[in-house]
């Protein structure tokens, strides 16, 4: 009897201990009722006559999951109980629409899985990509559900689904686990960009492709290429080969970059700056260079009173419209040196005469320059492009107004006649944030520029901080389309390509965090930096 009593006591104690570690299926551990019935049914089969009844097989009870740690942070996570998900060799990536084949093949390759195409069945370990047909949702949004040993990512467009795969890739990086539950995510801003000055400094195609991959994993969606300036013209030209600098990118290399960018849902935004910053073009066409009344040449400035000037720039715009398929087009329009003179009409009588002939007796050189911008906008608009221009290409008090659809790329308040960002917003214009106080990475740190830090962007900048350190009122937030971290190569040899990549690494991550999630970051800067280091 003593032996039996001790045995019973041990069973009770063991059962009591197990209650802290195990719970029956179908409870609050997130398992389904069918799983509970299946688990219990196997152990509830009638035992042989005279045999003791077997105890139910226990199922692990998991704590509620925690939100994934990613860059940028996900906007919403509904926790659940379960083991989460890890990719396994041989597990499938399946899609419900052939339009998602590229996203499926890419993530299958990245995670070491098998791309199985369109499938209706469900298997353990699956990653399923789907289009949900929600036309009212943000087109870049997605929902990721981790449940029952499978993952499903769905969104209204292939772009949204792609961003879901970027979240999953980060979650499972270096053996990590995608937490059980549902992620609902979308960007705060539709334009999240990185601009690169390849005119002053040549960057190899391989280096640019590496940046495209980095940008894609961080959910950026634009890459700006400023490829024409005083120091160089860096993309092959068929119409004007004489202007092209050495070294340069061939069109075949650019197409490869564009194709790679499109596979990451990144639009490449070209910029041919005019009527200033055209020194490379003017070296081959010195007859078009702007000259003062005394005959002195003006660096980088084309003479906009000459019809041939418009012809040569439009020929370039038309040529590269065939190369770059995206809608945004940067027209530059900044720092036209004719307008830094105290009396532009006296310094450049040919421009004053052309302005009055075109726009009337009271017209100014600023009117003629604004008309130039509108004419170039009309050229790219014929190719279904959306024009943008630097804010110092918009002038106060002109009789000629810039076209309403030209977006303002706001970078500085240091120009002559500088206007506050509110002037553009109050006029109803859409603005893109390139704030040179935070987002300008200028090689060699000339003038008053200093290299931006990720910490300063992370802790002090938001998309509403358009100029200096002060934010515009929240009511204008909808007119601010996004932002760009910009690399300018004023002192081109002061850093190598590798140093530039290292220098922009944390500023890129901080910038996209602020463009994706409008809220105050949950992580401290030290935590954010450590996360970036862990994710690679």
From TrEMBL:
CDD domains documented for this protein: GH20_DspB_LnbB-like (cd06564)
Transmembrane segments annotated in the record for this chain: none
Segments forming domain Glycoside hydrolase family 20 catalytic: 192-497
Signal sequence residues: 1-23
Ranges for region Disordered: 26-93
SUPFAM superfamilies: (Trans)glycosidases (SSF51445), beta-N-acetylhexosaminidase-like domain (SSF55545)
Family stated for the protein in its record: Belongs to the glycosyl hydrolase 20 family.
Protein's name in the database: Beta-N-acetylhexosaminidase
């Amino acid at each position: 009897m003593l032996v039996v009593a001790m045995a019973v006591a041990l069973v009770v104690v063991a059962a009591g201990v197990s209650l802290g570690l195990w719970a029956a299926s179908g409870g609050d551990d997130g398992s389904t009722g069918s799983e509970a019935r299946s688990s219990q049914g196997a152990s509830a089969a009638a035992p042989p006559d005279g045999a003791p009844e077997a105890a139910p097989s226990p199922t692990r009870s998991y704590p509620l999951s925690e939100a994934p740690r990613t860059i940028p942070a996900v906007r919403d996570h509904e926790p659940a109980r379960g083991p989460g998900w890890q990719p396994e060799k041989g597990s499938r990536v399946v899609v419900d629409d052939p339009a998602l084949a590229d996203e499926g093949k890419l993530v299958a390759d990245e995670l070491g899985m098998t791309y199985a195409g369109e499938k209706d069945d469900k298997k353990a370990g699956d990653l399923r990509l789907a289009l949900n047909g929600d036309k009212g949702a943000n087109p870049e949004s997605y929902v990721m559900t981790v449940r029952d040993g499978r993952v499903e990512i769905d969104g209204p467009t292939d772009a949204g689904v792609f961003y879901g795969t970027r979240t999953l890739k980060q979650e499972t990086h270096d053996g990590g686990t995608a937490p059980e539950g549902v992620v609902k995510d979308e960007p705060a801003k539709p334009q999240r960009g990185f601009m690169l000055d390849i005119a002053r400094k040549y960057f190899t195609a391989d280096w640019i492709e590496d940046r495209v991959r980095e940008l894609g994993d961080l959910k950026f969606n634009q890459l700006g290429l400023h490829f024409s300036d005083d120091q160089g013209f860096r993309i092959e030209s068929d119409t004007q080969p004489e202007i092209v600098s050495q070294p340069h990118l061939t069109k075949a290399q650019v197409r490869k970059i564009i194709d790679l960018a499109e596979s990451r849902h990144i639009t490449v935004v070209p910029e041919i700056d005019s009527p200033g910053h055209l020194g490379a073009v003017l070296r081959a066409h010195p007859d078009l260079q702007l000259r003062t009344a005394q005959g002195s040449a003006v660096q980088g400035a084309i003479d906009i009173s000459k019809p041939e000037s418009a012809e040569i720039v439009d020929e370039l715009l038309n040529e590269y419209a065939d190369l770059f398929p995206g809608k945004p087009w940067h027209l530059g329009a900044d720092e036209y040196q004719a307008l830094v003179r105290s009396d532009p009409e006296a310094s450049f009588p040919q421009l004053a005469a052309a302005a009055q002939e075109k726009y009337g007796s009271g017209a100014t050189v600023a009117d003629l320059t604004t008309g130039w911008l509108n004419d170039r906008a009309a050229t790219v608009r014929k190719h279904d492009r959306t024009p943008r221009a630097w804010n110092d290409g918009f002038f106060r008090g002109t009789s000629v107004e810039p076209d309403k659809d030209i977006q303002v790329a706001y970078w500085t308040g240091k120009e002559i006649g500088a206007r506050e960002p509110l002037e553009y917003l109050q006029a109803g214009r859409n603005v893109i944030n390139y704030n040179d106080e935070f987002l300008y990475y200028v090689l060699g740190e000339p003038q008053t520029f200093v290299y931006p830090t990720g910490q300063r962007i992370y802790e002090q900048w938001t998309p509403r901080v358009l100029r200096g350190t002060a934010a515009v009122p929240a009511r204008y937030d909808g007119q601010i389309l996004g932002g760009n971290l910009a690399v300018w190569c004023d002192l081109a040899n002061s850093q190598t390509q590798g140093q530039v990549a290292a220098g922009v690494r944390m500023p890129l991550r901080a910038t996209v965090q602020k463009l994706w999630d409008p809220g105050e970051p949950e992580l401290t800067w030290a935590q954010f930096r450590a996360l970036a280091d862990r994710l690679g």
